[in-house]
Specification:
The protein has seven helices and no strands. The protein has 127 residues and is mostly helical. It has one domain. It starts with a helix and ends in a 7-residue tail after the last helix. The relative contact order is 0.14. The N terminus and C terminus are likely disordered. This is Retrotransposon Copia-like N-terminal domain-containing protein. InterPro entries: Copia-like_N. It comes from Vitis vinifera. Pfam families: Retrotran_gag_3.
């Protein structure tokens, strides 16, 4: 466990920090990281907080906070600071989706509509 932490502690979580305009890239990138660490249950809600008296409570808190840290640290500072008071990684994941996913779709539409006609109507290679 310690060697795994040392091995990845200096590596960036994702090259796509959430900046308010790149939700799709960020969400896919951070999802791959979280899946790779087998902690996706914390953002899907499948791993709900046990009772505070349960023997697994301390472990759940530690792992939930680790995922929160990954999420917040994969955002620009001005966006990440808004999520520091959230209690669960799922709350952060859901709120980020609700807040930023529509902006991503809008920016893609603008980019597609802004393509000059001579490029937009090109035939694919091989035709």
């Amino acid at each position: 466990m310690v060697s795994e932490q040392m091995e990845t502690s200096h590596l960036p979580i994702t090259a796509h920090k959430l900046n308010g305009q790149n939700y799709l890239q960020w969400s896919q990138s951070i999802l791959m990281f979280i899946w790779g660490k087998e902690k996706d249950d914390y953002i899907t809600g499948a791993s709900a907080a046990p009772e505070t008296t349960a023997s697994t409570y301390k472990k759940w808190i530690a792992e939930n906070n680790m995922v929160i840290s990954w999420l917040v640290n994969s955002m620009t500072a001005d966006i990440g600071e808004n999520f520091l008071s959230f209690d669960t990684a799922k709350e952060i994941w859901d709120t980020a989706k609700e807040t930023f996913s529509d902006k991503e779709n809008t920016s893609e539409i603008i980019q597609i509509e802004g393509i000059p006609p001579r490029f937009a109507s090109r035939e694919p290679y091989g035709n």
